[in-house]
Description:
It is a single chain. By secondary structure, the chain is an alpha+beta fold. The strands form 7 sheets. Strands 1, 2, 3, 4, 7, 8, 9 and 10 form an 8-stranded antiparallel sheet that branches. Strands 13-14-15-16 form a 4-stranded antiparallel sheet, with no helix packed on it. A hairpin with a 2-residue loop joins strand 14 (509-515) and strand 15. The two termini are 34 Å apart. Mean pLDDT is 90; it is low at 670-675.
Amino acid sequence: MAKVAKKIYIATDEDREGEAIGYHSAMAIKKEPESLPRIVFHEITKTAIQHALENPRKLDMDAVNAQQARRLLDRIVGYKLSPLLASKIQKGLSAGRVQSSSLKIVVDREREIKAFKSKEYWTIDGIFEKNIESSISSFNGKKIDKMSISNEVMAMEIVHSAKVESFVVESLEKKERKSKTPPPFMTSTLQQSASTQLGFSPKKTMMVAQKLYEGVKTNKGNMGVITYMRTDSLNLAKEAVKDARDYILDIFGKEYLPEKSKKYSSKSKGAQEAHEAIRPTMVEFTPIVAKEYLSADEFKLYRLIYNRFLASQMVDARLESQTLLFKGQKSIFKASGRKLLFDGFYRVTGYSEADRLLPELKKGQKVTLDDINPKQHFTEPPARYNEASLIKKLESLGIGRPSTYAPTITILQTRKYINIEQKRIQPTEVAFTVIEMLEEHFAQIVDSSFTSNMEADLDKINEGNLDWQKLLSDFYNPFMQKITDGKANIKSLKMAIPTGEMCPKCEHELLRRKGRFGEFIACSNFPKCKYTTDLDGNAPPEPEKTDIKCDKCGEFMVIKNSKRGKFLACSAYPKCKNAQPLVPPKELDIPCPKCGSKILEKEGKRGTFYGCEKYPKCRFISNGEPLKRKCPECESMVVHKLLKTGEFYECIDKKCKWRESVPDDKLKRKDTEIS
């Protein structure tokens, strides 16, 4: 396409990674990167793209270099440190610049919880006439806070004293305060709110937001309904603010519209203020309209984004806080109330708290203490992070960027470093081992300030104030020296506890080891002796023998298990590594379009696929079921595809764009199964 196109535009995402993708795309089509016009937009709408086409710029090579530096830094850390962890602790482990410092935060919180010592404290609540709820505020002239009453003796002294005291109203104070409008969403706050309000994981939030950004059905056709969702900026386009203000004035009235439009600035370190906050692309595409066109999850997230954007441009809510003090001879009790005076932006976001009004009492008026309730408590350890609070912590420390929050949590789960139970993040045993080793030998990698400062240095490269190769060189040489020293000096932390028993095969001692799938017993003479059992002394089951002979060496085949099910393997393994499917692949009554041989239905890592029996000589392959039908446009083979978006008949020729929906009576699965 590049060879025949009259003009080529680079239109990747407007961030460092997008700039680098644009650069490498230009190199791949053998064009001078800086010669191609680069267009940027934060929303996929007709107006935004037309405006971008009218205002092209050149590729930002500083941004390309910053992304190159980030990519290489992360590869140096990951590719050099991960094998060291695998060799010293356990196979399958990994380390990373952002990943490891994030894991240390989780582990440190767990250490706090384990080291925590609970303390006793008491609260004393009083109920005065007219059912006024209050709490002890001071006793004998001393202010009482949460931890002031540390034992039952102190609590009972206050209770006995209060019961015989006579109380009067010392003061009734009313203060008006404002509840400020929330800023529009950026990536971190969207992930946090979607987690707490909708129960979405960060990964799910970004997947749904991606669909809303790329384009969904609307009353005006297919288009993006939110702006770019990977951003740490709170800027808003002037046009969007004007549309919001016009809508607020029209729908809610002038009392809900501030005199001037509101502007917000991000507290994130190194926020890319050229970006926009996450907002709807069309104010007229309200949640009421959107509900007809969006899926359930898309609608929930869109409504959250829409209401937050609209609320950010409305007036503050006004509340009245009330404080009532009851004074006795020794004790003072405090009662609090509140009243919503004007809902402001709560008109859009909602206000869940009910008014709690205090009665109108006069100063000096006598009141009766109807009841007093002492209650024992114990301090609790700090709560484990949930996904939302961990993202907030990473953001506050400047670790990672908007695009890295969700993938970081996902990879910690994938590597079995953390478990998420009841929405709380708990580190596994191996996480402690990894962090302890990194703290001792690679403290720089797990230091949050190092990761944060590295992000700042990448920003300097982006701004043209730092040479990217110098940054890499300054990091690489001392880091590689530590890797070399670690290989020689770090003791193996692999679990190998002597059992005191001898191997029945070779008379060497048996050890209790830990592998990827749990603990087991193995011979210390490994790899010469491969004797293993589980902790109960049960040996792994022997493979089931068959009367099928290996077509490579003539030995009998056996049935083995794998992650994808049972298969046939040569009994002479590892000398002969021949393996075959247990059930022969199904033959289709359709010839291969490349060589005319038979097409076989096979099972792979990603499910069912179709390939030529002459593989590898013939490399025909399809993830759709080949049909006898021919494409009406180019006469090529037609395949039946099952996609997330539905089922289609599609031409196998990639140059031909013909596609047709599968009729209801020919569907292989139901829509509910797809969703």
